[in-house]
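Try this one yourself first.
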């Protein structure tokens, strides 16, 4: 939790980049069906001998019923739907070219800066938080800093699906301690690069997107809160982590040096979904309830919850645990039906798209949760 401070910090702008391609559940199911048939036919002898298990066919109706997801955006569609590839085609870029994650970031950042009334030259800190960083170094945040013409400092960080809220707390701390005056938090999530499109349990979960936020000390903000999107004063941030292997991805630079070859499915997203559901939901309920108490608020004071967009049933159960009842979509907006799980970007997409109708003084909670386990919450009030 951020230390009590007389320095008020505000979110003065948000931005969103939505990729050009969308994939429906029907398209995704058809692709996986063809892939499964090919795999099972090619391994018929091993399957008959019991040395490997056959892969299961997807169920289009089950996808939306189980998750609330109807479609997802991706940076490149043809490769994902190719039964012989099952991953996007991303052009290899030369070192002098802008990286794909920086390219995703720029439109979102520029939209956020416009809402804040700022330009890139006003920015003196860039924090990039994402589940799967594009490269080890140089930090993509520094590349973005250069592209913006910003000063100060920049760094990349990863706390999986909580990377946005953890980035926000870092930004708030920097503004309060004086090490920055205008911070951009950006979350470019190319989840299609780390999703496992080959297995029924995972192929439908993720989508690509990028979000951005501008944070400033309230006294310095040019955004006075009178515009459509408002100014959102940060009342508090709270982070928590608890180790678990139930969501894991072992891709990394040490893979090539390991003595034993890994199963390729270890190098992409995998999870024990039932355990995650049972363990994370009560953890998040306790976290949000405790955080509201720390800022002298109650659940009934909160006008809107912008929750991590992982699974509709999880969000309903978490909100019910906090409120004592199932929320309606006005209280806890849903964007995962169109965007799917965009990892750290999800709660910020919900905030970006569903905040303009709130009134001055209304309270809201931005909350993320994911691998780690990690949980982050930001309590905000419209100015």
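Now uncover the answer:
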């Amino acid at each position: 939790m951020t230390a009590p401070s007389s320095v008020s910090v505000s979110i003065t702008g948000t931005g969103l980049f939505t990729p050009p391609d969308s994939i429906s559940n029907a398209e995704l199911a058809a692709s996986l069906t063809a892939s499964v048939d090919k795999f099972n036919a090619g391994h018929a002898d091993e399957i008959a001998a019991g040395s490997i298990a056959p892969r299961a066919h997807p169920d289009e109706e089950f996808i939306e019923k189980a998750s609330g997801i109807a479609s997802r955006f991706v940076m490149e569609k043809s490769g994902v739907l190719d039964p012989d590839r099952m991953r996007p085609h991303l052009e290899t870029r030369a070192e002098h070219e802008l990286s794909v994650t920086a390219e995703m970031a720029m439109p979102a950042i520029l939209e956020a800066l416009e809402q804040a009334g700022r330009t890139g030259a006003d920015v003196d800190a860039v924090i990039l938080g994402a589940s799967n960083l594009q490269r080890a170094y140089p930090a993509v945040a520094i590349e973005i800093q250069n592209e913006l013409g910003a000063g100060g400092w920049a760094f990349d960080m990863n706390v999986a699906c909580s990377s946005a809220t953890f980035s926000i707390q870092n930004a708030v701390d920097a503004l309060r301690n004086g090490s920055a005056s205008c911070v951009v938090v950006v979350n470019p999530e190319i989840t299609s690069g780390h999703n496992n499109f080959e297995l029924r349990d995972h192929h439908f979960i993720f989508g690509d997107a990028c979000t951005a936020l501008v944070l400033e000390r309230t006294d310095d903000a040019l955004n006075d809160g009178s515009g459509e999107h408002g100014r959102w004063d940060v009342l508090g941030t709270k982070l928590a982590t608890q180790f678990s292997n139930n969501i894991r991805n072992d891709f990394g630079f040490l893979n090539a040096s390991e003595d034993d070859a890994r199963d390729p499915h270890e190098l992409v997203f995998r999870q024990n979904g039932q355990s995650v559901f049972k363990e994370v939901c009560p953890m998040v309920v306790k976290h949000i309830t405790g955080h509201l108490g720390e800022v002298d608020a109650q659940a009934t004071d909160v006008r809107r919850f912008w929750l991590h967009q992982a699974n509709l049933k999880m969000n309903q159960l978490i909100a019910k645990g906090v409120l004592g009842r199932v929320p309606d979509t006005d209280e806890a907006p849903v964007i995962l039906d169109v965007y799917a799980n965009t990892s750290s970007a999800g709660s910020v997409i919900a905030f970006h798209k569903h905040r303009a109708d709130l009134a001055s003084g209304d309270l809201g909670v931005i909350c993320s949760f994911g691998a780690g386990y990690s949980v982050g919450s930001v309590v905000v009030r419209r100015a």
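Discussion: The radius of gyration is 21 Å. The mean pLDDT is 95.
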